[in-house]
């Protein structure tokens, strides 16, 4: 948050600087004293911007790159030149000198405006194109002003011509940046990710394998269990909710889809069909390390399933935990309208707790549904029974859950087992797409579970029929995954490789991912988009890895909104959040990168393919915030758009 506020301060000070120079320009023919003060104020504003940029760079250079590399040098040069022109002693009145001074004032004012444009529209990393455009704009504004102030009759015409020429050039460059991204002309980039050959940038086309071959995820788990047939039928459905309200939903067969429960070693034999969802549908297994061919992303790992079509998948259950599935075709509409369901994978030995409940929250146009109900439900649980609550957030923004009436332990985050001491009076903030499992011992009084957005709804666990339950209370203090975990033995695959990379400070692949909100063309239309590295999907560079690589990602959020980032096919180990390290190994597959935050996470590349890595606020994803983790040597035969009308978000 600090970084976002500093950035805002920077913009304000740049505006003040621009204003001072502009006023000085207007006054320069008359009031010398006023102009002197304005020049001093403009120089002070410049110094303040320098300080703010330095503070931003302390948090992460990506917060200040475009300022440090382009904006400030340009402003400093123009401002110093203007100040020298103004204060340098003059012997006799000279119209030439006046014209030059006016030009310098105009250039300095333009440079300050350029700084604003760089931060608010170009973003980071700003490349050569942005730099050249900025220099041309500043020199151009200065030259045009000097010509106009020069005073002879022909000059205004030349000036007007030059100004309109500049405008045209500027418009073309801005349009180009808008459609591709700030870094599009940067040297060393991979260039736009070709929709026809994902990740093919560095791989010889002849040796590249199709991701459709990747039908078994690398695992040590054997197919020891049952094969469970799963029929997921996308359909439009009018659903009567327990409150009596009805909603027009799209579902995979009933509200919140079929609730899938399996055990490690089982195989899901999945058949995805579509009755009448014209937009198409797919099934993506959120958080589950499936084989890439079954990741369910339209346009990347398969074509969207159109009405009357079918897609089959075989998914081996390799790890226990709480997951969910949802469409990955026009998800910002399909998931929101109800194309989702839960996946619970029990350990090989089966259910551990006496009572095991899955509560996915979903908001249907303002109506909060927990599990399958929009009203308070109650359930009798014998005192002394152990109860596991699997809390899932299928919405677009964080949800705050609470469990009142009994101390609980957090036992899993995003499907990875963790341990905590018994917690009381803690709320549980779950990122969009995230999961938290808690376990409690049923007391002989009621326990209430629910979300802050609907305190009258939720679930009451009561010791006997007719038990009372109060309205949900939301504890002010939230469970803190960075600080509240205690040691536990579970070490997900990749732990030791990441430990080794940390010890040697040698990750095979390192990348900074800059999240920002910027004006861009999305699908050919101008929009206030959500960008990664100044670009929008499909122009964002993928992170390219080899199997066995250790990867360190630094996610920097320059925007004012929270971005629940979600890499497919892999969990990440959180190394730090704004420099704060977790007390215990913390593995997540969906994590909220808050405004101004910097998350450092590590990933072990053990599941080949082309994997989306995106913001799970699906509206943000639809407006560009989608990148990929691409294993070298794999290509996808599927394309964005195309005959199937693929539209992953
Ligand atoms: Cu929950 Cu890309 O997915
Ligand atoms: Cu987002």
Features of the shown structure:
649 residues, alpha+beta, six-stranded mixed sheet, 27% helix, 30% strand, elongated, binds CU-O-CU linkage
Secondary-structure blueprint:
Blueprint: H1 2-27, H2 32-59, H3 65-87, H4 95-122, H5 128-150, H6 154-179, E1 209-210, E2 227-240, E3 246-251, E4 260-263, E5 267-274, E6 284-286, E7 310-316, E8 321-326, H7 331-337, E9 340-346, E10 355-364, E11 367-370, E12 377-380, E13 386-393, E14 399-404, E15 408-413, E16 416-417, E17 427-430, E18 435-441, E19 447-451, E20 454-462, H8 495-504, E21 509-522, E22 525-532, E23 543-545, E24 550-557, E25 563-567, E26 572-577, E27 587-588, E28 591-593, E29 598-604, E30 610-615, H9 618-622, E31 626-631, E32 634-635
Parallel strand pairs: 1-32, 2-5, 4-9, 10-13, 12-20, 21-24, 23-31
Antiparallel strand pairs: 2-3, 5-7, 6-8, 8-9, 10-11, 13-18, 14-17, 14-19, 15-16, 15-18, 19-20, 21-22, 24-29, 25-28, 25-30, 26-27, 26-29, 30-31
Helix pairs in contact: 1-2, 1-4, 2-3, 3-4, 3-5, 4-5, 5-6
What features would you describe in this structure?
The strands form seven sheets. Strands 11-10-13-18-15-16 form a six-stranded mixed sheet, with no helix packed on it. It has a six-stranded mixed sheet with strand order 22-21-24-29-26-27. Strands 12-20-19-14-17 form a five-stranded mixed sheet, with no helix packed on it. It is an alpha+beta fold and 649 residues long. Helix 2 packs antiparallel against helix 3 (65-87), helix 3 packs parallel to helix 5 and helix 4 runs antiparallel to helix 5 (128-150). Strand 10 (355-364) and strand 11 form a beta hairpin. The protein is built from nine helices and 32 strands. Mean pLDDT is 91; it is low at 183-205. The longest helix is centred in the N-terminal third of the chain and has 28 residues, at 32-59. Bound molecules: CU-O-CU linkage and copper (II) ion.
């Amino acid at each position: 948050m600090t970084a976002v506020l500093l950035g805002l301060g920077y913009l304000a000070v740049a505006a003040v600087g621009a204003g001072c120079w502009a006023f000085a320009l207007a006054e320069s023919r008359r009031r010398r004293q006023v102009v002197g003060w304005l020049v001093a104020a403009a120089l002070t504003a410049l110094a303040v911007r320098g300080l703010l940029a330095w503070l931003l760079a302390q948090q992460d250079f990506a917060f200040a790159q475009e300022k440090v590399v382009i904006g400030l040098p340009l402003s400093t040069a123009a401002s110093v030149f203007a100040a020298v022109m103004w204060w340098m002693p003059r012997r006799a009145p000279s119209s030439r000198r006046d014209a030059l001074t006016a030009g310098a004032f105009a250039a300095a004012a333009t440079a300050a405006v350029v700084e604003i444009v760089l931060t608010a529209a170009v973003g980071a990393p700003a490349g050569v194109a942005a730099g050249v455009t900025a220099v041309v704009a500043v020199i151009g504004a200065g030259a045009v002003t000097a010509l106009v102030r020069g005073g002879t009759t022909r000059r205004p015409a030349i000036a007007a011509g030059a100004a309109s020429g500049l405008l045209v050039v500027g418009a073309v460059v801005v349009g180009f940046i808008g459609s591709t991204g700030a870094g599009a002309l940067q040297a060393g980039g991979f260039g736009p990710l070709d929709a026809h050959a994902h990740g093919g940038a560095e791989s010889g086309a002849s040796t590249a394998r199709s991701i459709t071959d990747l039908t078994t995820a690398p695992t040590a788990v054997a197919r020891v269990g049952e094969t469970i047939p799963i029929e997921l039928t996308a359909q439009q459905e009018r659903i009567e909710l327990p409150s009596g309200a009805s909603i027009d939903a799209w579902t995979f067969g009933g509200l919140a889809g079929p609730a899938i429960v399996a055990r490690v070693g089982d195989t899901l034999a999945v058949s995805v069909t579509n009755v009448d969802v014209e937009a198409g549908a797919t099934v993506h297994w959120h958080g589950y390390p499936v084989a890439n061919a079954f990741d369910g992303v339209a346009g990347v790992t398969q074509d969207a399933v159109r009405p009357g079509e079918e897609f089959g998948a075989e998914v081996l259950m390799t790890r226990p935990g709480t997951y969910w599935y949802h469409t990955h075709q026009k998800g910002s509409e399909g998931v929101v309208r109800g194309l989702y369901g839960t996946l619970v994978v029990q350990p090989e030995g089966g259910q551990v707790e006496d009572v095991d409940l899955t509560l996915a929250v979903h908001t249907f146009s303002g109506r909060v549904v927990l599990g399958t109900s929009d009203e308070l439900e109650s359930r009798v649980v014998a005192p002394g029974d152990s109860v596991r609550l699997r809390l899932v957030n299928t919405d677009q923004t964080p949800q705050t859950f609470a469990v009142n009436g009994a101390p609980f332990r957090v036992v899993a985050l995003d499907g990875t087992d963790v341990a905590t001491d018994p917690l009381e009076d803690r709320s549980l903030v779950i990122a969009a797409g995230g999961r938290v499992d808690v376990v409690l011992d049923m007391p002989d009084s009621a326990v209430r579970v629910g979300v802050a957005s609907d305190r009258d709804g939720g679930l009451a666990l009561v010791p006997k029929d007719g038990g009372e339950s109060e309205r949900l209370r939301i504890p002010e203090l939230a469970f803190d995954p960075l600080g509240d975990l205690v040691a536990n033995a579970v070490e997900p695959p990749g732990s030791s490789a990441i430990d080794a990379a940390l010890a040697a400070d040698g990750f095979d692949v390192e990348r900074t991912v800059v999240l920002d909100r910027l004006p861009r063309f999305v699908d050919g239309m101008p929009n206030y988009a959500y960008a990664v590295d100044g670009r929008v999907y499909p122009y964002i560079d993928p992170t390219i890895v080899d199997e066995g690589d250790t990867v360190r990602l630094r996610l920097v959020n320059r925007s004012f909104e929270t971005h629940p980032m979600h890499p497919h096919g892999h969990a990440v180990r959180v190394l730090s959040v704004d420099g704060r390290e977790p007390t215990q190994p913390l593995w997540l597959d969906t994590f909220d990168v808050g405004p101004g935050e910097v998350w450092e996470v590590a990933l072990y590349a053990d599941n080949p393919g082309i994997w989306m890595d995106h913001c799970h606020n699906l509206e943000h994803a639809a407006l560009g915030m989608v990148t990929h983790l691409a294993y070298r040597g794999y290509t996808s035969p599927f394309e964005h758009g195309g005959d199937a009308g693929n539209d992953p978000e």
